[in-house]
Design a protein that fits this description.
Radius of gyration: 18 Å
Protein name: Dipeptidase
GO molecular function, one term: metallodipeptidase activity
Strand content: 5-15%
CATH class: Alpha Beta
Shape: globular
InterPro entries: Metal_Hydrolase, Pept_M19
Organism: Pseudogracilibacillus auburnensis
Distance between the termini: 31 Å
GO biological process, one term: proteolysis
Number of strands: 9
CATH superfamily: Metal-dependent hydrolases
Order of helices and strands: EHHEHEEHEHEHEHEHEHH
Number of domains: 1
Largest sheet: 9 strands, parallel
CATH topology: TIM Barrel
Length: 317
């Protein structure tokens, strides 16, 4: 069964290796250091992969934009340029035109730090094909507070402007890293909310997971929640996490009315712990096999890709 994965950090890994004098450059086709390399995507039957532009907070503010542009360049040269079967999705309708054997590649932004307070830089990102924007990583920035900001503030005026611009450009606003207050303020404004890689806080009390009232609000707004494979977000005992533990989160989301709103957001290449049997993109079909023990084929197809296709932003009236 084919897969849409709403979050990975392969661009960050590629940049880290590219900039390091100690690390060897990574071949996206088959490097074992990339959880989402092309061979693994093919084996796992991933037909659309999202690639986050993510800059670690230790990069100085005057360098962040340069780092973001470097990751976009690596997306074009290392992922698209050297692998003709990889096709950029610049409009959501492009997914419908993928041919057999082709894999769609979607650019996203994890943290508005990349453009600071420069809306022209944000418009450049839209032009580059960025189709989902998370206002924060874990820390605060000029748009909003993230889950790791102790004050727990909400959106700034700039943050609200960005959400409105996302609506105008048919771009998702990603809530996965937002503080609770930021989340609720996004819910007031966003036409296209998504949690690209988050789980259920009731099952695993981690700040990156969502409370029940947040989950219900997402479903009320017909937003998507894509479960994440990072063990600390799945189970308190992070050293012994198996696929059935992840399915508990899917089951809980279904119990809150989200069977048509669930997807996958692995966080591969951004995590260093793994669910047993789900260590990289090539193992996706093991998850599908396990899901089919509990859900109908139609429901599993929804989790795998159809729910996303049904809820992607549309330009049609």
């Amino acid at each position: 069964m084919k897969i849409i994965d709403a979050h990975c950090d392969a661009l960050y890994k590629l940049q880290l290796a590219n900039r390091s004098k100690k690390l060897q450059q990574l071949d996206y086709n088959h490097s074992p250091k990339l959880d989402t390399n092309l061979e693994r995507l093919k084996t796992g039957k991933v037909f659309v992969q999202f690639y986050a532009i993510f800059i670690y907070p230790d990069v100085s503010s005057d360098e962040i934009w340069k780092y973001a542009l470097e990751q976009i360049e690596l997306f074009h040269t290392e992922i698209l340029g050297k692998n003709p079967e990889m096709k950029q999705i610049k409009n959501w309708e492009d997914i419908d035109h993928l041919q057999t054997g082709e894999i769609g590649a979607v650019l996203t932004l994890e943290g508005a730090d990349a453009f600071g307070n420069d809306v022209n830089k944000l418009r450049r990102l839209y032009q580059e094909g960025v189709l989902s924007i998370g206002l924060t990583w874990n820390h605060a920035n000029l748009c909003a507070d993230g889950v790791g900001e102790p004050r727990g503030g909400g959106l700034t005026m700039l943050g609200k402007e960005v959400v409105i611009l996302n609506n105008e450009h048919h771009v998702f606003t990603d809530v996965s890293h937002l503080s609770v207050k930021s989340f609720w303020e996004v819910m007031e404004l966003a036409d296209y909310p998504i949690a690209s890689h988050s789980n259920v806080r009731e099952l695993c009390d981690h700040p990156r997971n969502l409370y029940d009232d947040q989950i219900k609000k997402m479903f009320e707004k017909d937003g998507l929640i894509h479960v994440v494979f990072n063990p600390p977000f799945v189970r308190a005992d992070r050293d012994d996490v198996k696929i059935p533990h992840l399915i508990e989160h899917i089951d809980y989301l279904c119990s809150l009315g989200g069977v048509k709103n669930i997807g996958f957001g692995s966080d591969f290449d951004g995590i260093d712990q793994f669910i047993h049997g789900l260590e990289d993109a090539s193992k996706y079909q093991q998850l599908i096999t396990e899901l089919l023990k509990y859900y109908s084929e139609e429901e599993v197809r929804g989790f795998s890709y159809q729910n996303f296709l049904d809820h992607r932003p549309t330009r049609l009236p």
